[in-house]
Structure prediction request, 112 residues.
Amino acid sequence: MELLSWIFFAPSRLLTVWPYAGFAIAAILIGAQLIRSVNAHHAFSRQWFRQAPVFTGLVWCIFNLYEMQMKAVMPLAEAAFTMARLDLIVLTPLLYVLTAFAVYSLFTPSKQ
Prediction:
């Protein structure tokens, strides 16, 4: 049961240990895409924000802000707070899938 708990609540637990981890993950993803775009001499436009690493970085920022808001609104004990959250059963798989696509797109060759 502990493994399932870690699978479904890992992003929330990570932000409990280090409150700004979501911003760090976002900075890494967006920075990596920025370096990749500059090296490929791509022009910056609105399409740049639709690339998987940039979009996923923005989603991690939003999730980090959401977690900060949840902790401010519901000041419960950390263990009870994490285990009673059904929103993470939906949000965590989304973060996992988006992050996997972002990392995959960073390691695949870019198309001109």
User: Anything to note?
Assistant: Residues 46 and 61 are 19 Å apart (CA to CA).
